[in-house]
TrEMBL record:
Pfam families: Acetyltransf_1. InterPro entries: Acyl_CoA_acyltransferase (IPR016181), GNAT_dom (IPR000182), N-acetyltransferase_domain (IPR052829). Residues 1-136 form the N-acetyltransferase domain. SUPFAM superfamilies: Acyl-CoA N-acyltransferases (Nat). This is GNAT family N-acetyltransferase.
Length: 136
């Protein structure tokens, strides 16, 4: 698996597959190198990792997606660790993410050292668990 910053040529792929981002935010996030494309050995796209900044100063992983047939092979873990290393290189000491309380991914993040830091309650939605991890 290889993880590379998205480029303009990935715009269509992201627009078609990532249903959790406004279309007009895709290009600015590509330009800001806030979307990574996950690729397999033959260079085909198998997923993405997208992040932003909480309070405009703390990296917040908004989404990691891996195509179904590639799940359970350690690609998610490897992607998160690569992203964390990038954040360390950029001078950050803390990263964040979140997951719904009814999703299994909360256990994945905890296994990588993320700790519960609070929650968000939106009307008619499951509780959103906020997780943080100290990098250094």
């Amino acid at each position: 698996m290889k993880m590379v910053p998205a480029t303009d040529s990935d715009y269509g792929y992201i627009r078609e597959h990532d249903h959790h981002i406004l279309e007009n935010l895709i290009l600015p996030k590509i330009k800001g190198k806030e979307i990574y494309i996950l690729k397999n050995q033959d260079e085909s796209r198998i997923g993405w990792l997208r992040y932003g900044y909480f309070w405009d100063n703390t990296p917040f992983m908004n989404m990691i997606w891996i195509d179904e047939q590639y799940r359970g092979k350690g690609i998610g873990k490897q992607s998160v660790l690569i992203w964390e290393d990038e954040m360390i290189q950029n001078g950050f000491k803390l990263v964040m993410t979140s997951t719904l309380a009814n999703e299994e991914s909360q256990h994945f993040y905890r296994s990588l050292g993320y700790r519960d830091a609070g929650c968000l309650l939106l009307e008619n939605e499951p509780m959103e668990i906020i997780l943080t991890k100290k990098l250094i």
